[in-house]
Amino acid sequence: MTVDPVQSDFILVSIYHLESSDKYPPYNDRFDFLGYESSNFIHLIGTPLLFMKFYIFLCLLYLALSKCKYNFMLKIVEWLRKLLFLATFYRFFIEMALESCFAAIISI
Questions:
Q1: Domain residues of the chain, as ranges?
Q2: Residue 43: exposed, middle, or buried by beta-carbon count in 10 A (0-12, 13-18, 19+)?
Q3: Is residue 84 pLDDT above 70, yes or no?
Q4: Quick one: pLDDT at residue 1?
């Protein structure tokens, strides 16, 4: 059983024009028992993929707002700088290394 804070199936189907995850059978019973119910990489790694897109959006927002000289915008830029560039990026990849490895193996 995997912890999926966002039900990403509907979002992924609409963004990538995929079929539902039921159309991709699990690799075997052991992976199915562990919560990898699909053999499609995008369905398996869906929520982290959405988090990565959100992170890229926040980076672009940081770059756009850093050009502004308003006091309120500078506070937002400082908050985004702390959020984005102080080990958040590395923590995300360290935590997702094992899950993305399993998803890649299943997809092969």
A1: 9-107
A2: buried
A3: yes
A4: 47
